[in-house]
Amino acid sequence: QVQLVESGGGSVQAGGSQRLSCEISGPSYSSRFTLAWFRQAPGKERVGVAAIPTTGDTNYADSVKGRFTISRDNARNTLYLQMNNLKPEDTAIYYCAATSAWTNSLRTNVYNVWGQGTQVTVST
Known about the structure:
Elements: E1 3-7, E2 10-13, E3 18-25, E4 34-40, E5 47-52, E6 59-60, E7 68-73, E8 78-83, E9 92-99, E10 113-114, E11 118-123
Parallel strand pairs: 2-11
Antiparallel strand pairs: 1-3, 3-8, 4-5, 4-9, 5-6, 7-8, 9-10, 9-11
């Protein structure tokens, strides 16, 4: 079993920055897992934001390239998402996800472990 717990959400003004964290635990977890961030805006489907396999071959959605950075600290079993130059359209619930497969996919059906989500609200 693997558990994911997100933190760091909140309200921020457009143009600002925020860092999300995801703490990973459980006897089945390995640093070989691929980790990712997804988000879901009100009334919309959940979509991939960024993924990072253990090799560090990151993958980003076009909408966040150049503004968001995904990273992982395997010693601390923690995943991060640094978000800069935030826009109102970044407002969503952000989810941490994991899979034992080697991949950097941003498709939701690739990931089988999910956190509870953390709200990010960007105001003008």
